[in-house]
Amino acid sequence: MTIKTKQMYGSVIVCLVLLCAQGGVSNAFAQEGARFSRRGRGGLGNISGELNLTPAQQEQIASQRSAQKEETARLREAMSAKRNELRRELEKDNPDTEKISAIIHETKELMGKRLQQRADGILALRSILTPEQFKALNEKMKRSRGRRWQK
Questions:
Q1: In contact, 44 and 61? CB cutoff 8 Å
Q2: Are 64 and 135 in contact (CB under 8 A)?
Q3: In the chain, what's the furthest Cα-to-Cα distance?
Q4: What is the DSSP letter of 41?
Q5: Is residue 1 pLDDT above 70, yes or no?
Q6: Which of 77, 103, 76 lies closest to 89, judged by CA?
Q7: How far, in Å, CA of 131 to CA of 133, rounded?
Q8: Dihedral (C-alpha) 62, 64, 70, 75: value to the nearest 10 degrees?
Q9: On the CB side of 52, how many CA atoms lie within 13 Å of its CA?
Q10: Strands, E, within 5-129: which ranges?
């Protein structure tokens, strides 16, 4: 076995041990399933009821998110391709430093586009929601993020 193969097997074993130690593999999959089921209800899930969104607001958010979802998928795919290209170049016996620099530059541009897209999405959401709804959504998201890290 090569060193990389041994490292991969070791990493898999460590991940399995950690999953089992934190409540079992089935618990981890149950949590993943719950996360996806919330997303399956239109993105905002039960938050839309808490924010008292109008049907027009719900429709605007749904259309904005579907458009953003397509662009996000395209950017993620492009970033993944660049990471793979960089990995292949770095693994070569004689890597081309100029090519590596070009790939890194292209990856930075893609990351900047993703960040811009995220900011545009937040601004679009802000224009759809009332200031009170937006503030309530921010508070809900902060509490949600806090719970995720407290486990």
A1: yes
A2: no
A3: 60
A4: T
A5: no
A6: 103
A7: 6
A8: -140
A9: 6
A10: none
